[in-house]
Amino acid sequence: MERTNFTTAIAATKNPAKIAIAIVKDKNDEINLITLEWFMRTSIKPAMFAISIGHTRYSFECLQNFRYFNLCIPSKEMVKAAEICGTKSGRDVEKLELINQKWFSGKLKKLPIFKSALANFECEIVTQVKSGDHTIFVGEVKYSWLNEEKKILLFEDLF
Ligand SMILES: Cc1cc2nc3c(=O)[nH]c(=O)nc-3n(C[C@H](O)[C@H](O)[C@H](O)COP(=O)(O)O)c2cc1C
């Protein structure tokens, strides 16, 4: 064991990592999507997920305004969608059009549920906490969706 810098230690310990795509809505009622590595389950009852969003992201503005997000756990076939949602900003492009994925409105009828994802979780934001240059938004899961036959997309599948 040797002392090292944070960047080296985190690079060596992060994989295998899952990723998610959070679906949000802006103040003009337009859908935006953001690829996330920093998300986690935070409560059993009620079920909750936390997502950590950088303050420079367009999705951060969206989440301050519209207090719901869908947490999509992408399948391997959504690799291009995850790349687009993780490299382009909703300030510049309509990601929902670009990714060309089939979807339907969830039970809450607020945000798209992606048909080829492994899972989708419809969440309502219950609290948020600033964490350095990100804010953690905690959402209570209202409805869950699953495609059992799909294979999960991993960080290492990207790019
Ligand atoms: C694999 C991957 C994981 C990412 N994880 C996060 C994350 O956890 N939090 C975050 O704020 N940005 C994360 N990003 C960066 C955003 O997805 C990216 O900046 C995106 O273009 C922001 O879009 P927006 O401006 O429409 O919100 C990640 C990007 C990639 C490719």
How would you describe this protein?
The chain contains four helices and nine strands. Helices cover 19% and strands 39% of the residues. A seven-stranded antiparallel β-sheet has the order 2-1-5-8-9-4-3. A two-stranded antiparallel sheet has the order 6-7. The model has no long low-confidence stretch (mean pLDDT 97). The chain is globular. The protein has helices at residues 6-13, 58-65, 79-87, 95-99, and strands at residues 20-25, 31-36, 39-43, 48-54, 68-73, 103-105, 112-114, 119-131, 134-146. The chain is an alpha+beta fold. The chain has one domain: Electron Transport, Fmn-binding Protein, Chain A (Pnp Oxidase, Chain A, Roll). Strand 1 (20-25) and strand 2 form a beta hairpin. Bound molecules: flavin mononucleotide.
Quick gist of this model?
A 7-stranded antiparallel β-sheet has the order 2-1-5-8-9-4-3. Helix content is 19%, strand content 39%. The protein has 4 helices and 9 strands; from the N terminus they run αββββαβααββββ.
Number of domains: 1
What ligand species are in this complex?
Answer: flavin mononucleotide
Secondary-structure element order, as H and E? Answer: HEEEEHEHHEEEE
Rounded to an integer, what's the Rg over CA atoms? 15 Å
Q: Which secondary-structure class do the elements indicate?
A: alpha+beta
Q: Tell me the fraction of residues in β-strands, as a range.
A: 35-45%
CATH topology: Pnp Oxidase, Chain A
